[in-house]
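Chapter summary example: a protein plus adenosine-5'-diphosphate.
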Amino acid sequence: MTVCVLHVAAEMYPLLKTGGLADVVGALPPAQSQLGTDARVILPAFPAVLAGLSGVEPVADLGHAFGIGDVRLERGVLEPHGVVVYVVRADVFYDRPGNPYLDASHHPYADSDRRFALLSWAAARVATGADAGWTPHVVHAHDWHAGLAPAYLRAFERASGRPRVPSVMTVHNLAYQGVFPAAHYGVLQLPPDFYAVEGLEFYGHVSFLKAGLYYAERITTVSPTYAREIQTQHHGAGLHGLLQTRSHDISGILNGVDYSIWNPSTDTTIDTRYTAAKPAGKAKCKTALQARMGLEQNDGALLFGVVSRLTEQKGLDLLLSAIPDIVQRGGQLAVLGTGDPALETGMKNAAAAHPGAVAVELGFDETLSHSIIAGSDIVMVPSRFEPCGLTQLYALAYGSLPLVHRVGGLADTVVDSSLENLADERATGFVFETFDRAGIVAAIRRAFALKARRTEWKAVTRRAMEQNFGWEAAALQYDAVYRGLLA
Ligand code: ADP
Ligand code: GLC
């Protein structure tokens, strides 16, 4: 039987991206199609989404909802893989300057509860027949933006008496929960009794993520280690109690890499292409990156790269404290990121203090992100917590050794260059245990030490490039989750 699944999400690469969620929603459906699953996606009709789809056509008039009129369901196709994408047309909600979550002056939109409730409600409408030609067997909700979809499926079931389509809730990041004032509950078009501890109430508020975690039949998250961590008080962000009660329904499925986009042998955005067998082009990428970022042209300088949202999660305050330890040893640092003003200022100050050795570019730049991943010797991901993390996987593919904190998906994907792991031919990067200056500095020192041993450095970079984190493994595991639901 062909399983039909509808992914519900706020972003999808290459249509619209602010982080790893988009990469996943862009890559998982084509990987699922390869396995014979009919995977479609529903997104809000943001202008960039509409602009990137071909053959957009009307599907259904959804009428009046959440205080706005003229809500329409449309359907288009995303090439090159031909993924069918439904869009929710509601220009009052989605046709705005700014990104999906923040307005042009970086403030959260005041009506995001209604904006994302509409997305989930429209997904539940598709699951109950809004498209006469296609109905999913499973609804797959991603992050809090889609958290209400499982709740609407239950509500529609109760109202119609027809059995609901089951749903899967994937947590990409438990830190973002979509929590809104209880006073707004009335506009969500949900039964009054859903606002309860056994429901979507969360400390006197409405929590979209809790709705998904409570009402979905299965819960997944994006790495095995994070699946365990979120059931602990330390990493559970207030939801560990609920997650513990659902322990048997939770699985950790590691994200993959889309090697059609992140592959140094075919990447047309980098200076020179290269492979594990013929790595010479990597040195040219490094020279080009140094020139692009205004770093001193020096082949021998160990170049550390960062491509990241600048938020508390990513641990870059710890990196700031360790910059002298990089620079004093003759190393360089290239940073691309955007986010918290305090971290942006910290990065700018570091660049000003170490001209030629530290370079920072504030902003979101897809091409530069590839240049940094390719041109760096080391890619740093010192996150406080990390559900999966994709940049360390991209770094491995480009033979740029990841330097990471041993947490979440970072712990599942990078093997430290300890003497034991070098001897066992397992090392692929640098991993530190304790989130403090001593921890990260020791890892930085191991990086310099390994670089000084040419043969071993070569062996580790080669092993890094040979790792396979393709999407097929994840697609197979999601397939098993869906089939478990339908059995
Ligand atoms: P998260 O989703 O928490 O931000 P991930 O590592 O899963 O972390 O994914 C981040 C994605 O966003 C990667 O594709 C990374 O290259 C990209 N990215 C992050 N910041 C930037 C930036 N400033 N410019 C371009 N790409 C960025
Ligand atoms: C989130 C997480 C990140 C993960 C990404 C995609 O944004 O912070 O660790 O890789 O989602 O699942």
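Key point: The chain has two domains: 4-256+471-486, 280-465.
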